[in-house]
Amino acid sequence: MASTSDIKNGLCIHFNHAPYQIIEFLHVKPGKGAAFVRTKLRNLNDGRVLEHTFPSGAKLEDINIEYRTYQFLYNDPNGYHFMNVETYEQFEMPKEVINAPDFLKDGMECMVLFHADEDRALRVELPSTVILEIKYTEPGMKGNTATNTLKLATLETGTEIRVPLFIEIGEKIVVHTADGTYKERAK
Predict the structure, then answer these.
(1) Fewest beta carbons within 10 Å, which of 91, 136, 161, 165?
(2) Domain with residues 65-125, CATH architecture
(3) Interval 160-181 mean pLDDT
(4) Which tens digit of pLDDT belongs to each residue from 49-84?
(5) pTM for the full model?
(6) Of residues 89, 88, 68, 91, the one with CA closest to residue 80
(7) Taking 90 as the threshold, does the pLDDT of residue 25 lie above it?
């Protein structure tokens, strides 16, 4: 059992008969009244996010979790298929429990969050940044790097993001998976 003083980002708890992961939290100590903890929780079964306020000192049922490395194989109408890189065991996950499914490419290694007691996959997390190739974008203009003007570009995964004007077709770029923004050219 954990209490509100143990709350941190990434903590997994059993709440409302389902596993949840804490995304954000804020300890609030008002001038008048008891302290409380305001949290944002992600349901690990379906990916929905909810906000909940816990009174200070409340007991929480924490879940034993572990991260395992899996490789993305492919997706089809049934879901996204992953393989354990050590045992070659395969399983599929729905799109809702993957943090950035638009940036998955074949062969990419991801971290899969497992419920250790039930040996059940809960969530798939991509790395914070991924390197992807530009498949299509409008031609850039030489010397147009002084402004922060952006143009649309289609990545090798089929996702469209906004990139600077100097980026060309065939270049590899680094993309933030959290918000889908361009970071830099890949080195």
Answers:
(1) 136
(2) Beta Barrel (2.40)
(3) 90
(4) 999 999 988 999 988 888 899 999 998 888 999 999
(5) 0.75
(6) 91
(7) yes
